[in-house]
Amino acid sequence: MGTNLVQLFLNLGLATLMVAVTVLIHFWGLVVLVRIMGHTGLRLRAHDHALGQAGLLIVVVFGIVGLHTVEIWLYAILYMQLGALQSLESALYFSTVTFVALGYGDVVLGTSWRLLSAIEAANGVILVAWSTAFLIAVTARLRALEHDWLKPRD
């Protein structure tokens, strides 16, 4: 019983650390993206030209994908360091499908680390939702998808 309790607290401790690290990475990454948007000269005005808005939106999307990639890699490296998964490919695959809460189930962890992976899934869902909300806010601000782009200019 004592060994199970130690393993439980080890899972929770590592999961808490990973959540803290990934949330901080995500927060600071989004701050950097906001700064990039502010320094481009396209100050998110509705009358800016469409090509500039589209370019800025693409930068934001790639930035968000980059953030998620870093977060997924951190979990994958942790799984390998713990000996829970043996190859980098398996660790990355497992971490990716867990992070986005897809969970195919073709690669699974042993019972020792399954709580850690469950918390990765919850963490991933929250971070993906945060990214989605950020992207929607940026898109709305840029008015990139509005019909105004299709109106003829005088």
Explain briefly what this protein structure is.
The chain is mostly helical and 154 residues long.
Question: What features would you describe in this structure?
Answer:
With 154 residues, the protein is mostly helical. It has a single domain (2-41, 49-146), classed as Orthogonal Bundle (Helix Hairpins). It is 73% helix and 0% strand. The protein is built from 4 helices and no strands. It has helices at residues 2-39, 50-82, 88-99, 114-142. Helix 1 runs antiparallel to helix 2 (50-82), helix 1 runs parallel beside helix 4 and helix 2 (50-82) packs across helix 3 (88-99). The N and C termini lie far apart (77 Å).
List the keywords:
Helix Hairpins; 4 helices; 73% helix; 154 residues; elongated
